[in-house]
């Protein structure tokens, strides 16, 4: 029997052998492979959830009366959540966006993975998704799942997009371009103004994944919003954000997309039909978290201290890793260029699990990525195991 698409192994499932080796160390594995937050979510978000549900089940009151705990929540996001996003975007990113240009999504991974198929229905004459050559694997997978061409955008030595290196044919066939700033895995900051201008000139919508914006170390957080065309600077561009990284709410699955009114409006309607809905209580918790910046500043301090400590540990074994311009990943060159061999060595000698750079594209094979999601004490444990 012949088969069509066969899903490849999920990247992190391929680390099980290394995980088992690392787990043999006293104290167990120190997992720096996946960027899953382990620090607490903000108290304001948890308090909002507790207020809605109560200790004995669903609480009475305005939130329950509005159906947020029991009824179907609005797919596009409650007015409260969208207004909170609108305020946050203005306060933190300096971009003014209209309320009808904002919508919620069930975390951003599903948005990234399903977006190409919705855009293909809208524009069947194009068949190509452009994405950074070294980047989050779901950009490529989203194109594959939609039956489209996934074309890498070359990157320079600083891990920034080189849009000028794209062929005329690929640009003419492009359905969309993904940019990611701060970048995962390398932590570089792309010129979003230039990316937006390129998109306007090429007639290609630019989707900017900005989920690490709050962890921008070189200058203030940045956005593509305001750099597109039109009076609001949002035509042709859409920013994508998540509560997972900013507020350690990965398990609650809530994010949003905002920008070009026509694109956002189209996606809002398609996604209603597909049944994508963030649970109502989670939307309320996200709105509360967006109104609190103190917990973000605390998290920024945690990540920066871990980044500097991890860099010291690597230096102690002769590996020079640059601190990122943004994000909470350390992108470290491998001593001999073999990312899998060094992943195995670190698991064996340091009891630490990292991600081979080739997870993010073959061009990343000479590096590994360390996610700074473990506390300093666990990093110190790795240092002790490595003798530094």
Structure notes:
It is a single chain. The chain is α/β, with parallel strands linked by helices and 388 residues long. The chain has two domains: 11-41 and 294-386, Aspartate Aminotransferase, domain 1 (Alpha-Beta Complex); 46-290, Aspartate Aminotransferase, domain 2 (3-Layer(aba) Sandwich). Helix content is 39%, strand content 13%. α8 links the parallel β5 (174-180) and β6 (206-209). Mean pLDDT is 95; it is low at 55-63.
The largest sheet has its strands arranged as 2-8-7-6-5-3-4
Number of domains: 2
Structural class by SSE content = alpha/beta
Q: Tally of extended strands? A: 12
Average pLDDT, all residues: 95
Largest sheet: 7 strands, mixed
- In whole angstroms, the N-to-C terminal distance is 56 Å
What's the helical proportion of residues?
A: 25-40%
Radius of gyration, taken over Cα atoms and rounded to an integer in Å: 21 Å
Low-pLDDT segments, ≥5 res: 55-63
Q: Report the total helices.
A: 14
Query: Given this structure, which CATH class of the largest domain is correct?
Result: Alpha Beta
Order of helices and strands: HEHHHEHEHEHEHEEHEHHHEHEEEH
What characteristic shape results from the CA principal axes? globular
CATH architecture name of the largest domain: 3-Layer(aba) Sandwich
Strand content: 5-15%
